[in-house]
Specification:
By secondary structure, this protein is an all-alpha fold. The protein contains 24 helices and two strands.
Length: 501
């Protein structure tokens, strides 16, 4: 029986009867903020975090967004360090594909097994800490790999780093999506991932102009010390998260929130095997991430072939594309404040399809420009697929989230296929491989806008987490206050009302 799917995994998710039994004595959102302890919280218990307000969620969201930025920075720096390793060890293109397989393969293993189990068993805080520690261990492992100049050690270190980052994503993405009013879920994750994109853009620029300026391409001493610095930094960040106040949003909280939105969304609790939107989202995410990594991995070679420019000039074009990627995320977040997220996803995926097809046919700088615009339209796809896929999962939210993070493993498959076609044909023709992946992902917003429109729009219309004259909508304190007012209008105290029945 697969790990995390057996009795232990099932016991981590609440039953509806358990949630109903807790409703009348559940904590308020104020208590959820007051009880942000360092101990783990049962995933089957209500915490009151299903009705967190914008004000209550700001600090934890900012804290995790800082984490997004910092690991985006570390990931961007990792690309530069990996390139230094490849140049020093004379790693071939085929072996470079193996490096991507090692990194993205960790996503296939971690989230469905130990990462998903940790987030359901111990909660978001401890999953953040464990992910950072695994990341730090992987960074430390680069030191002996550099000393021995070992390709196998490099692959193993990269796998451990991927395990740490996949664990972080298993907790960070659903936490941002669920911490706060549900109608702002897509906006929150889009903004947070925008800062991750900024970190990824800044790191290579600093690396080339500060960390590795005027260094011998075959000298790995600076690389070793940089990895050591990354390890120390993420371990310190783990300590910060240990002491930081972070509310726990359980699967029971999400089930209660989904029930409260049922009048708008038509929500009906279903077993995991019938969550078809989730399964489609996983397939779309797998193909999209694979296609995105396929484009990114071949961008420079494509630019050299198309525009007949040097690798350095092609790298500058890629930096522009990365900048547009970060800008695109902020633009998508702004659009989501005035437009339905399912429409935003449809618009951006349409742009991806148009310009990747144009890049296949265009030559010269025009082809490079088309592929650069593809990066802009790619920007919002991952976080938007994620949030729309977990909408309405209720008590299955954490497990479903871990499956969508596991779909990042598509990045292990598509780059190799793209490179294989490029070796035998051309880089222009090779873009047909990402095109196929984008086509599958493009079918997902079509499905959302035709089959799931009522459900998704209902979550956007809900006022849970917002204030009215009686208090915070969706919170137990508001319900008690309204009940008290009704009793007073009838001339019966709440105690007398209970005794009379």
């Amino acid at each position: 029986m697969p790990f995390g799917i057996g009795k232990v995994g099932k016991r981590q998710e609440p039953e509806l009867t358990e949630i109903y039994e807790q409703q009348q004595r559940r904590p308020s959102n104020v208590e959820a903020m007051q009880n942000m302890q360092r101990k783990s919280i049962s995933n089957r218990g209500l915490t009151g975090a299903s009705a967190l307000t914008v004000r209550q969620s700001i600090f934890p969201i900012v804290l995790v967004t800082i984490l997004f930025f910092l690991w985006g920075f570390a990931y961007g720096l990792l690309d530069v360090l990996n390139a230094k390793f490849q140049n020093s060890l004379n790693i071939t293109a085929a072996k470079a594909g193996g490096l991507q397989g090692a990194y993205f393969g960790a996503y296939l293993i971690g989230p469905p097994t130990y990462s998903g189990w940790i987030v359901r068993k111990f909660g978001y805080r401890w999953t953040f800490i464990v992910g950072l520690c695994i990341y730090g261990v992987g960074a430390l492992m680069f030191w002996p790999s550099a000393v021995k100049r070992s390709f196998g050690g490099f692959c193993g270190s990269l796998f451990i780093v991927g395990s740490g980052l996949s664990t972080l994503e298993t907790s960070a993405n659903p936490f941002i999506a669920t911490c706060g009013p549900p109608r702002l879920s897509e906006f929150r994750l889009e903004i947070s991932q925008s800062f991750q994109a900024i970190g990824s853009v800044m790191a290579p620029l600093l690396a080339s102009r500060v960390f590795f300026k005027n260094t011998d391409p075959t000298d790995l001493s600076n690389v070793q010390w940089t990895y050591l610095g990354i390890a120390g930094f993420v371990f310190c960040l783990a300590v910060v998260f240990f002491f930081s106040p972070i509310p726990e949003v359980t699967d029971a909280d999400m089930a209660l929130q989904a029930e409260q939105c049922a009048g708008l969304t038509g929500y009906v609790d279903k077993p995991l095997r019938k969550q078809y939107k989730l399964f489609f989202g996983v397939a779309a995410q797998f193909c999209y991430v694979g296609a995105q990594v396929g484009v990114a991995s071949q961008f420079i070679k494509y630019s050299v072939e198309s525009a007949k420019i040097s690798d350095a000039a092609a790298s500058d074009r890629y930096a522009i594309g990365q900048g547009l990627f970060a800008i695109g995320r902020f633009a998508a977040a702004g659009l989501m404040m005035v437009m339905k997220p399912r429409w935003v996803l449809m618009i951006f995926m349409t742009g991806v399809m148009i310009f990747i097809a144009a890049a296949m046919g265009a030559e010269g700088e025009a082809g490079v420009a088309m592929l650069t615009i593809v990066l802009f339209f790619e920007s919002c796809v991952f976080p938007t697929i994620f949030t729309l896929s977990i909408r309405g999962l209720g008590r299955h939210t954490k497990r479903g989230s871990s499956w969508i993070v596991a779909a990042v493993s598509g990045g292990a498959l598509f780059p190799s296929l793209t490179g294989l076609v490029a070796d035998n044909k051309s880089y222009h023709i090779a873009m047909c491989v990402p095109l196929v992946g984008f086509f599958v992902a493009f079918a997902f917003p079509i499905y959302l806008n035709t089959v799931c429109a009522q459900e998704l729009d209902g979550f956007r219309e809900t006022k849970i987490g917002y204030h009215d004259e009686d208090g915070t909508i969706g919170d137990i304190s508001r319900e008690e206050r309204k009940a008290s007012v009704v009793h007073e209008e009838k001339g019966v105290s709440p105690v007398e009302k209970e005794v009379s029945y």
